[in-house]
Write a structure and sequence with these properties.
This protein is of the alpha+beta class and about 250 residues long. Helices cover about 25% and strands about 30% of the residues.
Length: about 250
């Protein structure tokens, strides 16, 4: 496992994002020279996803954790690069297990038409720079039964047909996060942005979307460095969307 990440394990917590924020000073104080600190929990009682959704996970079978970094090198206008880097880290790790996942804008990981993982990024700013970022990750690993929900869930075990060692998986994933974080720190912004775009679910394909005006057919043309999604409508108009302004019907 990456030596430059301090990790704390919990049996249960309401939200790893909330916990790591409240405990930030203590965690950084324990390991002041680490690139990141992480909190892993066997169970979350109030796990959150994008758009205020609840993240459902059975105890002791999945990966539920948050990572905190302090990327002072990153301008506030470039914050979406963190989301892209984490999504690529998940993709890289899953590929090591033979799962070629797709990245659903802005922060979900899909296998086919099913949701495999979700990411929630919370940013704090200092002037025009990113002061601190908390990245919450929920990855379905060994769970095989899920409550009824509008997005079809899937797990690694369901895809692979075998139980996955969660400790080894966590090690691979944190290592991948550090790989992409170091690329960010080195200024490899274009490489990260291009790699994210290439793996984007729905890129260049006509699909169904919903926005405040209703349902329409459109094609993703790309994502701006700011994180805005560019969708070409069937009538030829190009629309630009921020988070929560559009939803892809998978």
């Amino acid at each position: 496992m990456a030596d430059n990440i301090y990790i704390e394990h919990l049996r249960e917590v309401d939200s790893t994002n909330r916990y790591i924020r409240d405990e930030a000073s203590r965690l950084w104080g324990i390991s002041p020279h680490s690139q990141a600190v992480a909190v892993v929990s066997e169970r979350q009682t109030a796990g959150r996803g994008q758009r205020g959704n609840v993240w459902h996970s059975r105890q002791g079978v999945n990966l539920l954790f948050s990572i905190m970094v302090r990327p002072a090198f990153l301008a506030a206008a470039q914050q979406f690069l963190l989301s892209e880097a984490v999504a690529l880290a998940l993709h890289r790790t899953l590929l090591q297990y033979g799962i070629d996942a797709l990245l659903k804008w802005p922060n979900d990981i899909y296998a086919g038409r099913c949701k495999l993982a979700g990411v929630l990024v919370e940013i704090d700013y200092s002037g025009s720079s990113v002061e601190q970022a908390i990245i919450g990750i929920g990855l379905n690993v060994n769970q095989t039964d899920f409550p009824a929900m509008d997005k079809l869930p899937v797990s690694m075990k369901m895809l692979l047909g075998i139980e996955v060692d969660r400790e080894r998986l966590l090690s691979h994933l944190l290592d991948s996060c550090i790989v992409y974080y170091n690329l960010l720190a080195s200024g490899e912004y274009d490489a990260i942005h291009s790699a994210y775009r290439e793996r984007l679910l729905g890129l260049g394909e006509q699909r169904t979307y919903t926005d405040t005006d209703g349902t329409f057919e459109g094609t993703i043309e790309g994502v701006e460095p700011t994180g805005h999604l560019l969708v070409r409508r069937a009538d030829g108009a190009l629309s630009r969307y921020a988070f929560k302004e559009i939803e892809q019907v998978v």
